[in-house]
Amino acid sequence: MVTIKDIAKIAGVSPSTVSRVVSNHPRISHETSRKVKAIMEQEGYHPNIMAKSLVSKTTQTLGILLPRPAEELFQNDFFGELLRGIVTQATSAGYDTLITTVTKDTDELMAISRLVRGQRVDGILLLSSRTSDPVIGFLQENEFPFVLIGRSDDYQDVLSIDNNNVQAAQDATNHLISQGHTRIGFINGPTNLVVSQDRLAGYHKALCEANIVARPEWAIAVDMMQQSGFRAISGYMSMPDRPSALVVFDDAIAFGVLRGLTELGYSVPEDISLVSFNNIPLSGVASTPISSVDIGIYHLGYTASQFLLRSAQGKPLPEDQIIIPHRLIVRKSSINQISSE
Amino acid sequence: MVTIKDIAKIAGVSPSTVSRVVSNHPRISHETSRKVKAIMEQEGYHPNIMAKSLVSKTTQTLGILLPRPAEELFQNDFFGELLRGIVTQATSAGYDTLITTVTKDTDELMAISRLVRGQRVDGILLLSSRTSDPVIGFLQENEFPFVLIGRSDDYQDVLSIDNNNVQAAQDATNHLISQGHTRIGFINGPTNLVVSQDRLAGYHKALCEANIVARPEWAIAVDMMQQSGFRAISGYMSMPDRPSALVVFDDAIAFGVLRGLTELGYSVPEDISLVSFNNIPLSGVASTPISSVDIGIYHLGYTASQFLLRSAQGKPLPEDQIIIPHRLIVRKSSINQISSE
DNA sequence: GAACAGCGTGCATACGTTTGCACCTGACTG
DNA sequence: CAGTCAGGTGCAAACGTATGCACGCTGTTC
């Protein structure tokens, strides 16, 4: 492999000069620069990044700790889109993106520790938004740049990029209310996720502000598999007194719900209206197109990446929390004027 | 940051000894090893990976060149699942995974060149399966370890991990034939992808073997957006003489087709049967569950990663092409005994 | 009792860069 | 004409680790 010394020898200059040419040092003569650059091109020279990192103490790399394979994020489009946002921004800033994953919860700290202590990355992007995350504590102690996608109540002064999920759920619920519904249920995601808690809170807030009394038995939690949406809906429909509309945590679950309803002979939105979250591409081509809150997943990743880079470069971070705007996309599943009771 | 020298000083030994402890050198006394390990633990020492790489000429990292953001793979579940397979295998072997992407085609070579020449990764995983890919040529010239997910006809001696897409399409088509269909159409993906060509070939082969004459106007190509499936189907249905069954390139497109059919007042599988590919989780909960060929995406990524690691470690590669088995999952969209004509 | 084997450790060098400092040259100043 | 200055370049040290070689020590063998 051709090194800086080889180039220097061919060009008849010292390695330092070549190095300065590479970094566009101001005090290199135009002619030398031109000559060296030509030789680099001709020899196909690229600086060895390891050597560079060793002295510069910087890796030009961002780390991402993936949620465990078993976890939900991998199950649907969310992750791919998020990653696209992250990588696009990082790449445009000349950074690479490093991915690690773990199989057991207990390995998480080890994996992070390896990245941080081994100085393999300049900053870390955390995807999990569990209520309590030891990784956050570790990163804070070591004053290592990191950004959280999501939110954590248990730690202070953490830069996190998130949607206003309370507001988003409130918007979704209010939309149903504005369509004349008063009997509104909620199918939530895993309750240990902050986002689930936020959306549930938004749902309750909307009901409260509309002076609708929440019915506890109408708010349930399922895991992220669309099968569970399928199962959940039959529970609802067998209730003697059932809701006329549902807010659903996630499009994948909503698909299951929709399918269950069809199978049971109900139709959407006539018998029951639906609004869900994430607005994955397929939402629009479901048998009944599903109204969904677009939470700007790409934007989320892009922004997180952007702020992490700033932080990694030692620049001050503007705020403690960045909110990515959401937008309710109304489709057929919730367009319905039911008779007011 | 604590280095090997610090540990050495505290333990009262030389850095070499510490280094040997870390790598479990046989000629280190048990007691020294124990003592040094205790100190490493206590000081939170992790070897600097950059320095390590510099001397060992190895990075313990795999590179992935993402398809361009605009490209299809990002659009659906395929990519997330593939990545999960790749990263899981790599991580279990102690490797990290580095992701880069480019915005323009012309940047691809630059990006790859940076990784290879800069010795940033030990091997590269190529996701694109375009018929002609300059990146493959570059990697071959430089004798750099790489594995192709997909297939390329233009280069010899490339280790590629792929499905038998010809067979898969043949199976899908045969399934429709076995259901009594003789009027079978094909909605293909982008024609510059090898996989599209293979599936089209399999479709033709099945027809041919069943002595069914292929109708050129029944085989069309669309891009990967599900909207295009939506549009395509109206073209079919306005034909005076239309197929009774369709093989569709991808689940996302199939969703669009399904939706189009419903909108036009047709039902599946009664008016028209469908079989598609990829078997994404949502296929099973479509309004009519879609029959789909499961191509083992996770398995594809996992295996590719596995062979790339072998190659990166200088081990010989067993074969030129590894085939990941596929499996047709029959669902309602294709279960239909139509009257034989 | 000398020679030798084997174990455990340290010294020195190398990996490919960056960068502070010093040096040289020529031009310009007073 | 000596002195200053700025531009252009090279020297050498440093980053943190791995490893071939040499060295000292202990115990064994003839």
TrEMBL record, chains A, B:
Keyword list, A-Z = DNA-binding, Transcription, Transcription regulation
PROSITE patterns documented for this protein: HTH_LACI_1, HTH_LACI_2
The HTH lacI-type domain is annotated at 2-56
Keyword Repeat on entry = no
Kindly give the Gene3D superfamilies that the UniProt entry links to this protein.
3.40.50.2300, lambda repressor-like DNA-binding domains
A Pfam family recorded for this sequence? Peripla_BP_3
UniProt cross-references to SUPFAM superfamilies, sorted A to Z: lambda repressor-like DNA-binding domains (SSF47413), Periplasmic binding protein-like I (SSF53822)
The protein, known as: HTH-type transcriptional regulator MalR
Q: Which organism is it from?
A: Paenibacillus plantiphilus
Per the record, the gene is malR
